[in-house]
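User: Before I run my own analysis I want an independent prediction to cross-check against. Here's the chain; please return only the structure tokens and, at the end, one sentence I can use as a sanity check.
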Amino acid sequence: MSAVSHQAENRSKGFTLVELLVVIVIMGLLIALLLPAVQSAREASRRGLCRNNLKQLGIACHNYSNAKKVLPPGYSAAAGTAPDATTPGWGWTAHLLPYMDETALFQQLDFTQALETQKAIQSQIAVLICPSDIPPSGPFEVDDATFTPICLAAATSYAASVGSDASEVDDMACNGVFYRNSRTRIADITDGTSKTVFLGERAWADTNGIWVGAPNTAVARPGESNPWQTATASAPCLILAHNNWINIKTDSDGGLDDFSSKHSGGANILFGDGSVRFIVSIIVDGPEHQAFWAMGTRSAGDDSKALE
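Assistant: Structure tokens:
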């Protein structure tokens, strides 16, 4: 075989530069087409895990109710204290701990003392974090309106509903299920448990919430994905929200007391019958907005059919 024919044969066994570039382009296009599908599948899985978290919390609520004959308080405040005083401040999640397989953590808490004095509140609880949320890697600093540190506490991606927009998170009494010193019975929910919101997502990346409760004089602050970085809300907002907006970004108070999520297009919401529904984002007034208000009340006899 001649040297020329041998060189030609070697060239025929390899790729030319043009062929290699074509292969790279094709591979790039395939990856570009597949990536959204992979991301969508991953988000669907995260949304399902978040749904599971809320279902577990719903079971805990009902087991607590079966044992105590009432649902846990939104947060506990000493009798006779002013509306802006929250001590000892223990929230609904702290009361649910024994029904969430967290008995050991529950036994570390002294409910007769202010929550901000106890180190156990720094413990992260996996079921309280949505996998799509962007929480801190450990406990974070909770402070007051002057940025004076109050305590370190672990984050949460969920909040309990105080009721419709007519109820604020720091009201002494509200038209929903969870609020200051609430002792709501299942029998009190005459609107029907399948139509009344118990809990919902409130992304830590939007509102820096904590699971333990409402430390006295603390404020809730916006998370990194909230465009209203100077907004603040009172201490009960750290664990409570109301049925008003979902994923709003145009509200000058930062939407701190509203439900939100890092899922695309809506948030998971737990109802009193233990069901979890994904409700699409509500950012403008209309029938859906009014229906979501109605879903926050426990006994108003109002209509929530627009979201059914």
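Sanity check: The CA atoms of residues 64 and 71 lie 6 Å apart.
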